[in-house]
Design brief:
Number of strands: 16
Oligomer: single chain
CATH topology of the largest domain: Rossmann fold
Number of helices: 7
Strand content: 25-35%
Structural class: alpha/beta
Radius of gyration: 19 Å
Strand order of the largest sheet: 10-9-8-11-14-16-15
Order of helices and strands: EEEHEEEEHEHEHEHEEEHEHEE
Distance between the termini: 35 Å
CATH class of the largest domain: Alpha Beta
Shape: globular
Largest sheet: 7 strands, mixed
């Protein structure tokens, strides 16, 4: 984990701790798991020498609507809730008061690294949140288009560009759209825009413009079909989901069906599992490598 101070420290049953610099985030699915892990922390710190300045707690509910921002469990209550972490030499802003997620999904680390190694020319990052995929692509020299319904999230994305010495403006090749992905993709296709890398990491469930429902099990294929309309021959498309009812195999079967209906073909690959994040706690991801 060279040049990285953001990673999963350990997991214990229904709870796990992620490190963001000196701040630790303890996520738990049951109160008993929270109590058990808090009891284990002193022994872990003594054994590893890895200390925290603050400990935040975050309940992980079954329903997304029940999500809430992390709360401070230990540490200086007067300290600011914003900080900066580094992953592979890339800097990301964190805000523990901004909502359920502080700003960086650690289980996408290998996919961000793969995208950067890919050195794409034009990247479309949908459901972009704080634009971490866009940042690594821009650092590799790509023009980027980031899409998210939340203007606030995109503003945080622009800040991540600035943290890394990148100018987040169209003249520098970087666009940000606070729009529904399902509305924007057809418009980009009609304009003839094409991308050699596309990131599709939607929420399990959401509501878009005009109350449009998105449920990943029902609509992921529709999303992929729209993405194929703006993908260049040979493009790479990342499919990702946190839906517990979907597997990589499900995703590949779905992708093969969509590709077959369009008479396209592709190879498939997944990055190796991360040592610090158990597979059952990580997003399921699949790269679709279109054939030219």
């Amino acid at each position: 984990m060279e040049q990285t101070n953001a990673h999963r420290l350990f997991s214990s049953g229904l709870a796990w701790i992620e490190r963001f610099g000196g701040d630790w985030l303890l996520s738990y699915q049951e109160e008993t798991a929270l109590d058990r892990v808090r009891e284990e922390i002193p022994a872990f710190q003594q054994a590893t020498g890895v200390l925290s300045s603050r400990l935040f707690g975050r309940f992980v509910p079954v329903q997304n609507v029940e999500r809430s921002a992390p709360v401070l469990l230990d540490g200086d209550a007067g300290a600011g809730l914003e900080t900066v972490v580094e992953e592979g030499g890339v800097r990301y802003g964190m805000d523990f008061g901004a909502g359920y997620s502080a700003g960086l999904f650690l289980d996408q680390r290998a996919n961000r690294a793969f995208l950067r190694r890919m050195s794409p020319k034009k990247v479309l990052n949908t459901f972009a949140y704080t634009c971490s995929f866009s940042v690594v692509a821009a650092l590799a020299g790509a023009q980027t288009t980031s899409v998210d319904l939340s203007r606030k999230s995109l503003d945080r994305g622009r800040s991540n560009f600035t943290l890394n010495g990148l100018n987040p403006v169209p003249d520098a090749g970087h666009r940000f759209y606070a729009e529904d992905t399902f509305d924007l993709l057809p418009r980009l296709a009609r304009k003839g825009e094409r991308f050699d890398a596309v990131i599709l990491d939607p929420p399990t469930f959401s509501r878009g413009n005009k109350g449009r429902k998105f449920q990943v099990e029902q609509h992921l294929g529709d999303l992929l079909a729209l993405a194929l309309e703006v993908a260049t021959p040979g493009a790479k498309i990342l499919l990702s989901t946190n839906c517990s009812r979907m597997t990589r195999k499900n995703m590949e079967l779905l992708a093969r069906g969509v590709l077959r209906s369009r008479r396209q073909s592709a190879d498939f690959r997944s990055e190796p599992e991360l040592e610090d994040i158990p597979a059952e706690l990580a997003a399921k991801t699949l790269w679709i490598c279109l054939k030219s």
